[in-house]
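Homework-ish question, so no full write-ups if that breaks the rules, but can someone show me the predicted structure for this set?
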Amino acid sequence: MLSPADLTAVWLTLKLAGTTTLVLLLVGTPIAWWLARSRHWATGPIGALVTLPLVLPPTVLGFYLLVLLGPDGALGGLMLAGGLDLLPFTFGGLVVASVIYSLPFVVQPLQQSFAAIGEQPLEAAATLRAGPCDTFLAVVVPLARPGFMTAGILGFAHTVGEFGVVLMIGGNIPGSTQVLSMAIYNHVEALEYEAAHRLAAGMLAFSFVVLLLLHTLKRGRPW
Amino acid sequence: MVSIRARFRLSYPAFTLDVDLDLPGRGITAVFGHSGSGKTSLLRCIAGLERAAGGFLAVNGETWQDGARRLPVHRRPLGYVFQEARLFAHLNVADNLDFGYRRVPPGERRVALEQVVELLDVAALLDRQTDRLSGGERQRVAIARALASSPRLLLMDEPLAALDQARKQEILPYLERLHDELEIPVLYVSHSPDEVARLADQVVVLAGGRAVAQGPLSETLARLDLPLRLGEEVGVVFTGRVIERNAEWHLARIGFAGGEVWVRDGGAAIGRSVRLRILARDVSLARHRHDDTSIMNLLPATVIAQAAEDHPALALIQLRVGTTLLLARLTRHSLSRLALAPGEQVWAQIKAVALVG
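A: Not a homework solution, just the prediction itself:
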């Protein structure tokens, strides 16, 4: 079976993906709502910025985050001045990087389902005494439920599978930043193909199940 | 102060809504006009769904909007029935009805949920999902949902426009009940003369974003100077009372201010108040009384005025029977042959009278 080190990596990966998904849903929802509803000129540039991780090599993203968050970076310097610990090579740093890296996978499905809801149910809710927040919780969230499910699953799965960003910003510290993809890489480097197989096959099965789940989700319910 | 004061000016690329209205704060007021005349825009301004800066709106003494402040939609105690029902797809019928109801503080509720359910006859639908409703059922649920939020003003934007004729006939009796049983002022947007004739107490006529006429239904419909083109639907509506019912011929005799007419017996009991509609195309004129005709309803009338019709062959004559105004549509040829002038006595031969509720 899995070695204790591998188990630690699996646990760390799940923790990272869970935390990241939670943060992503909290951060991505208002961004997606604004992108779907606003006619402000800035929706174009901001939308492109959010989508950037889709096309950018993860190492590029990781590299710039490392520079930005490092002791000589703009944000890193600020954090040091504020008496905070630096983020690179910590679990917190991994979360920040993963959130940015997986943002489009959460924002896009949400944005699409928000746009699909349209103006009509919102106007109807307003004429029935529901204020904006009330309407969002009582009408938008339930109507956009498939969007939230898709966003959550994609965000989680995508974080589980990341490698480049983790390598750049997290390093390879067991128990702190060594996630599954790193563990597999280490096994292969050490020519421990059997151990690599166990983890890799697990990832394969996991990814397949996720996609199957998404597919069923899309076909199952009309709303 | 029982009135609705509304003043809005709102510019769109294609037209400008520019109205200053003082409407009665009770009964059904039809907002009538052709498509593009600004009816829906007016309703949306009143609801607060359109932001008309600088507008003014007071409903029965409460100011909803003036230069200084503007209540957001959800703080206006109104009900809005949209053309396409707009039920919430994630809720069943009961939860749709409950949506507005439970957002009204108990102290401000004026109707019980059961009362609304009974009024619109939706008890059998409560457990249904909204996608399992027919068009007519959807609209009934939408009306019930709006009423359940205890509105102090009900706005209805062509609630029957998306329905076929049979479904319309299915809903109209419910709207009439609403009118008879609830004391909520209603603004009813419509471009259907039929619905207006049947439901409205007052009418506001919009054209090109402006209110071109306003007043009680009978008076407004009988006006000759209305820049309103009803075509075949030009006619008058007035109320009368059932005096007699003839079982042998299935006819009812209706008395009104200035005379009596026979109509097909619609089942209304003697003494009941009914609404009559007479289209101008169903009224012809004669200088002498002709009894050798199939037309039952012959009324002595006085010619008041005349106006041109859309088609150059036709003219519209305004008549008075007692205190009731009628319209007759003649060819200009007939008019010239009869040489009718204002003040002259004629016989109005009425081919058809419709009971419209």
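Now go work out the reasoning yourself. Hint: The first helix of chain A runs from residue 4 to 37.
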